[in-house]
């Protein structure tokens, strides 16, 4: 869920030419380890885990279904990340900057991403057999959302809709879908449980857009941050983090208020220190991984809160 192609000027600079030779003509972002966007994988892990925990409050859960849901969620996130760079081949501006090795890496990652989708689909069919066709409908909608993030003719990232849609597709849908997959029941409270991490999911995507603001502008990729401007994008980033904590009040929990305070106030203060240090730097390369770590800590804290 990101793009960090450098501008033509940057790639033609002596420093970047030297780096390109050093990497044998391979842009590091297209290496599998980079294309997987490891910092974003906690999104699937946390959202699916929240859905499973929510389902556990309803009924005993089959351990096999639990494992399969977690695997499917991670594969879906990995698949989205791996096919993301394929849009660079379709963009004449970025295509001119790609070496033959870059192109082959992008195609390889794209095929690997589709393999993740296929395995995820097989798991989804099995879980649908165990529950109902409603799960298949959820999986179909989620799959289309993942596919068209950077795929034409929709490509909602360039339409400035990425931050909004991932709130639902990689947040609410993932939590609610995971809960239904392990229980076969509609649990409306799973939606309120999903809201806090959904805000942080949007913040994680926005962190990518903030980092890529300059290159996205030069490539004509009109993300939400490009449309709003860098300053407004940073403000929105903080708003999303703020509401991720505030929305915890929406959770219908029997736990006392002090439990939430003990868990989340320290996490909130730590996030302010970590993200403020990163977001105020001219170079925002560290913002996505910093936000990813915040997401992981926040998600684990919410899971603990629901379990105690």
TrEMBL record:
One Pfam entry name: UbiA
Membrane-crossing residue ranges in chain numbering: 39-58, 64-83, 108-127, 133-149, 161-184, 235-251, 257-275
Keyword Coiled coil: no
Keywords: Membrane, Transferase, Transmembrane, Transmembrane helix
UniProt membrane topology term: Multi-pass membrane protein
Domain of life: Bacteria
Keyword hit for Transferase: yes
UniProt-annotated stretches for the region Disordered: 1-25
Compartments in which it is found: Membrane
Protein name per Swiss-Prot or TrEMBL: Prenyltransferase
């Amino acid at each position: 869920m990101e793009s960090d192609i450098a501008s033509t000027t940057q790639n033609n600079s002596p420093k970047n030419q030297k780096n390109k030779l050093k990497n044998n003509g391979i842009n590091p972002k297209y290496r599998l380890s980079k294309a997987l966007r490891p910092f974003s994988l906690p999104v699937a892990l946390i959202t699916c885990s929240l859905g499973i925990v929510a389902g556990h409050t309803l009924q005993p859960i089959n351990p096999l279904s639990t494992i399969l849901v977690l695997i499917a969620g991670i594969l879906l996130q990995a698949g989205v990340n791996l096919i993301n760079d394929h849009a660079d081949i379709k963009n004449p501006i970025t295509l001119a900057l790609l070496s033959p090795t870059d192109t082959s890496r992008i195609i390889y990652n794209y095929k690997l991403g589709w393999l993740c989708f296929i395995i995820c689909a097989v798991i989804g069919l099995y879980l649908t057999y165990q529950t109902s066709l409603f799960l298949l409908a959820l999986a179909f909608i989620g799959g289309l959302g993942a596919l068209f993030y950077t795929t034409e003719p929709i490509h909602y990232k360039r339409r400035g809709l990425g931050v909004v849609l991932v709130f639902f597709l990689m947040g609410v849908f993932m939590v609610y879908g995971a809960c239904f997959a392990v229980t076969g029941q509609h649990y409306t409270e799973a939606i309120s449980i999903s809201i806090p991490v959904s805000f942080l999911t949007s913040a994680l995507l926005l962190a990518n857009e903030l980092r890529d603001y300059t290159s996205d502008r030069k490539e004509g990729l009109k993300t939400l941050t490009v449309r709003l401007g860098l300053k407004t994008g940073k403000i929105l980033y903080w708003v999303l983090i703020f509401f991720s904590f505030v929305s915890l009040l929406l959770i219908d929990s029997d736990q006392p208020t002090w439990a939430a305070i003990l868990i989340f106030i320290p996490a909130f203060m730590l996030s302010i220190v970590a993200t403020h240090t990163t977001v105020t730097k001219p170079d925002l390369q560290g913002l996505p991984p910093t936000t990813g770590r915040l997401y992981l800590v926040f998600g684990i804290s919410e899971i603990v809160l629901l379990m105690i």
